[in-house]
Amino acid sequence: MRTSSNPAFRNLPTSPGGYARFGDAPAGMAGGMFGGGGSPMPTAAADDRPLTVDDVVQKTAINVVLALAVGVVTAWSGLYVLGLLGFVVGLVLALIIIFKQSTNKFLVLGYSAAEGMALGAITGVFQNIATSPGGTSYAGIGVQAVLGTLGVFIGMLVVYKTGAIRVTPRLTKMVIGAAIGVVVLMLANLVAGFFVPGGMGLRDGGTLAIIFSLVCIAIGAFMLMLDFDQADQAVKAGVPARFAWYLAFGFMTTLVWLYIEILRLLSYFRE
């Protein structure tokens, strides 16, 4: 089975046919991937009905709408300090969901709400700059970023469904390697910023920064391809329907990445 660049999907166990099977545990992991107390997780037949594409679509849509609603309220409220709280809570919930591979809908919805709060605060800061005297015009940048993220999502879904680009082991390795590479560069740029103004120039709004953001968006788009493939394999494997929440969480992590990078790219052209 191909692994995904999305940490939420990377460790899914596989069936003999190569599809994700949530009921199996890797060697040496007691209690199964999702079971506790040393007992393996029930199979789909013993637990509930099999997962369908509609389940994944519906749960993902619920999380997206929730994140958007919380984001809009946060941006309009002016309580931008909530952004830091959102990022911290979102990170904690993400780690819990990933390491426990939890299907708890409240944890997933909590993650989406927290990220919506964080992204809404960031967007609100840009909008506030737009309304300040002599400030750069960032008006409407949030709507543009949302539309851009939606456009990438729909575009990559069409590419995946039509088979224009197929998810192969080689493509998977390339995407994972590229994702690791940009994260390392982001950290290096952050550290360099403490010693040199602008750091390595990856986030200063210049030509290199624009190119870097475009690369990050491209990687995020291909991460969506891998996410589509993982969800497709889970449906084919007939895993329990409740795992739609876990898959929705995986999509949300990629969409958050894309929104931030698209928002950042748009800001460069407003300076």
Automatic annotation (TrEMBL):
It comes from the Bacteria. Keywords: Membrane, Transmembrane, Transmembrane helix. The lineage of its organism: Bacteria, Bacillati, Actinomycetota, Actinomycetes, Pseudonocardiales. This is Bax inhibitor-1/YccA family protein. It comes from Actinomycetospora lemnae. InterPro entries: BaxI_1-like. The chain crosses the membrane at residues 78-99, 106-126, 138-159, 171-196, 208-228, 240-260. It holds the Pfam family BaxI_1.
